[in-house]
Amino acid sequence: MAAKLAAIGVYTLQDVLFHLPFRYQDRTRLSQIGRLVPGQEAVICAEVLISDVVIRQRRSLLVRVNDGTGSLMLRFFHFNQQQVKQFERGRQVRCFGEVRRGPGMLEMVHPEYRVLSDGADPADGLDNTLTPFYPTTEGVQQTTLRRLSDQALAALDASALVDLLPPEAMRQTQLPDLETALRIVHRPPPNADVQALMEGIHPAHRRLALEELVAHRLGLRLLRVNAQQQHAPLIRPAGELMGSLRSSLQFSLTGAQDRVLLDIVNDMGTPEPMLRLVQGDVGSGKTVVAALAAAQAVESGYQVAMMAPTEILAEQHMLNFSEWFEPLGINVGWLTGKLRTAQRRSAIEAVAMGRERIVVGTHALFQKDVEFENLGLAIIDEQHRFGVHQRMALRNKGADKNTLPHQLIMTATPIPRTLAMTAYADLDVSIIDELPPGRKPVTTVAIDNSRRGEIIDRVGTAIDEGRQVYWVCTLIEESESLQAEAAEDAYATLQEMLPRHKVGLVHGRLKPRDKEAIMQAFKAKEIDLLIATTVIEVGVDVPNASLMIIENAERLGLSQLHQLRGRVGRGSAQSSCILMFQAPLSNNGKERLGIMRETNDGFAIAEKDLSLRGAGEVLGTRQTGLAEFKIAQLGRDDDLLDDVSDIADRLLEGNSPNVQALVRRWIGEEKKDYGGV
Ligand code: ADP
Ligand code: MG
């Protein structure tokens, strides 16, 4: 049984208590037949009027009963002679079952029933509480789960499951205490609001969700408190290098970039480690802000690591950083998983000896054997692809155990406020809420696959006008090799249909060098039309590209579409995006493409994405467990989040011993990283 229960995450008595029913039956009271509605499950007590075995399509036993408020048919397909005799005219029967619409009147098919003896009390033996139904797994019966929860609830009185939330704060929320909440959700009293219980919005549920959210927030806050007890290098140079870099740029910073840069410079100017998340919509110019921050660290004599989630994006940063820093006499190092052993060894050595002051790369940067001479700033781009664990691995690359690098995390996924409060409670947040001047919003249309020919004509015309075009092939499968095949097919077709134009192909199976060569060729306008897989999703920057076609757009999430579309609209030309779809569209698909047509605002899109797909998908952090809760649900429980931060802050300020206890209770030992560090 233990092995079976493990499949639903139930190991301890406490797990039993936090494993909540998803529905209930009401066997606590008698319902009047006259008030029954189809679909309802109810107990009734009524007198047998007539009982008969009929043979139409199927031989069945029909028993018509009446309780003075109305009649109901009991229908049995499997029955024996003794049952037929039981339903004697005038007998009282008590039944429980689901009410259905029958041919002449409401009926119950195969109800549970009992024929009452003369003078018996019809209410005798009714339940005292609603009957719970638990999410279960093969081989575990509801009766087992009920027995287990009975035992766990009985043990509650004496158990160590004490209420850990501050009573004063809880009084204000008017939610029940922990024990009451658990008793209500597992064994609701007869008058409980079943609808609210099933939707998870009953005060009892909310009490549990609140506690869970508080625990998660505390876990992240502890991470932060811990980080801040350590030292970080003081980065407060004269700012000459940053000044030179700024004046070498071909543009001036937007107000928002300036403001965010100032936040970063201030953070790094104190010996407390910076923990800052920079949010900025695609194209808002995060990279240059990161480079300016890097200049500060380098001028102070520290190393900088810049990490990106994919090779192609790392390459992009490598190009930008080299272009910016090399004229200033600063060499930029390169470290990814795809380096050959010898190259890798010498790259690692250059980093360890401090010969490289800035290193760009992928997650290979935080492998165990990579040691920095004196890492002062770690920049992590497109953070939603990384988990908390990876964030922490870089933290541990500081010069010694008591020194942490400053951390700058950049994300193009605009995180709705509610989600940010929960998922990034360990970070300060700055927002680049302004696009560089001259950007025109991308015009977006959705077009049925059947008009493919027309779209290809349009691509040809655009190229003749001197524009460059992306054609993005997507598949449901994440598999890069299947995507690559689809892209190869499209490449062949389009080359044939657009013979006068230069068509290129880039996908994840190409060697990094080849990929880079193609991207460079596209950037240099040697390629007019680039067929690509979603590898171009993040970061790639070709300002002259002003038309994007996305195949199978209906299959992609909103945030991903927004990222892709962000590859165009970067220059001064009016850009457009064509979302191709396979008809017929589902309602959800219609809604998603509709949103893409209506808005270019990454925040609005993220909010929608959150409500359509859920937090785990939006953050891309399912694997971190961050957005996964046992009871709470983002979206449904958002209005609790203000109380959540109040309560968490209060507990932390008071140095309450309950902080650790809450983290242990809800996050557990196996995820110690969050709370135990
Ligand atoms: P993202 O925030 O999506 O990473 P990038 O950093 O790639 O955006 O910047 C997008 C483009 O905008 C790049 O070509 C970059 O050089 C350019 N850019 C950045 N800041 C400015 C600015 N203040 N004015 C004009 N162009 C800018
Ligand atoms: Mg970027």
Task: Fill in the keyword field for this structure.
alpha/beta, Rossmann fold, single chain, 25 helices, binds magnesium ion, disordered C terminus, 7-stranded parallel sheet, binds adenosine-5'-diphosphate
Explain this structure.
There is one protein chain. The chain has 677 residues and is of the alpha/beta class. The chain folds into 4 domains: 2-23 and 131-199, no CATH class; 29-115, OB fold (Dihydrolipoamide Acetyltransferase, E2P) (Beta Barrel); 240-432, 3-Layer(aba) Sandwich (Rossmann fold), CATH 3.40.50.300; 443-599, Rossmann fold, CATH 3.40.50. Helices cover 39% and strands 18% of the residues. The protein has 25 helices and 21 strands. The strands form 4 sheets. It has a 7-stranded parallel sheet with strand order 11-12-10-13-14-9-15, sandwiched between helices. A 6-stranded parallel sheet has the order 16-21-20-17-19-18, sandwiched between helices. Strands 2-3-4-6-5 form a 5-stranded mixed beta barrel. Strand 11, helix 13 and strand 12 (358-361) form a beta-alpha-beta unit. Helix 10 (255-268) packs parallel to helix 11 (286-299). The chain is globular, with a radius of gyration of 32 Å. The two termini are 34 Å apart. Residues 621-627 and 670-677 have low confidence and may be disordered. Residues 251, 253-254, 257, 280, 282-288, 412, 436, 539, 541, 543, 570 line the site of adenosine-5'-diphosphate.
